[in-house]
Design a protein that fits this description.
It is a single chain. By secondary structure, the chain is α/β, with parallel strands linked by helices. 38% of the residues lie in helices and 20% in strands. Helix 1 runs parallel beside helix 2. The chain is globular and about 50 Å long. It starts with a strand and ends with a helix. The model has no long low-confidence stretch (mean pLDDT 86).
Length: 183
């Protein structure tokens, strides 16, 4: 199971807890963790590495330059640059074909096996609809050209990395962002 998170130093304690919740509920699974690292200090990295290593799993911190995403629009106040880094996740984690992305503010309270074993071979990803946007802010979808599409929560994503690469999700997203950047 390949699991990714993104975090800066401020969210490192939450990252540690989120990882620990995965470990406690998935002890029999083989897990490789990847962290899109937006400036986690060495002390926090060592603490997190210790937690992961004590559970006999692996972790890799991948430095992300937040300036890469400085020109990306923030169209909703809770969307961060880390959200945009996910669009480029195949470049940061090139050697896996399937990846589970989990936000650091998420606790895992059970096995992830069923989710991980979901067949997404024909899809780019599996996600849950964001009903706040779908229902409460449906006009926002129209503004950004998604009136005929589902808006999903990006906090937990099961990503078909092979398909993500084939579709060149980053480039397609950048084209879309340029079209709707003035909101």
């Amino acid at each position: 199971m390949n699991i990714a998170f993104s975090s800066d130093n401020n969210y490192a304690p939450y990252l540690a807890i989120s990882i620990l919740s995965v470990l406690k509920n998935n002890s029999k699974s083989e897990i490789s963790f990847y962290v899109l690292d937006f400036g986690i200090d060495n002390n926090n990295k060592e603490i997190i590495e210790s937690i992961v290593c004590n559970h006999r799993k692996s972790i890799k911190f991948i430095s992300v330059d937040k300036d890469e995403f400085a020109n990306f629009p923030i169209t909703i106040n809770y969307i961060s640059l880390a959200t945009y880094a996910r669009l480029n996740i195949t470049q940061y984690i090139p050697d896996v074909d399937k990846l589970l992305y989990i936000d650091v503010d998420t606790l895992t309270n059970g096995s992830l096996d069923d989710l991980w074993n979901t067949d997404i071979e024909q899809y780019s990803l599996a996600a849950c609809k964001d009903f706040f946007i779908e229902i409460e802010q449906a006009d926002y979808k129209t503004k950004i050209g998604l009136e005929n599409h589902h808006y999903f929560n990006a906090g937990v994503l099961l990503i078909n990395m092979r398909r993500w690469r084939e579709l060149n999700v980053l480039e397609v997203s950048l084209t879309w962002l340029n079209k709707y950047k003035v909101l």
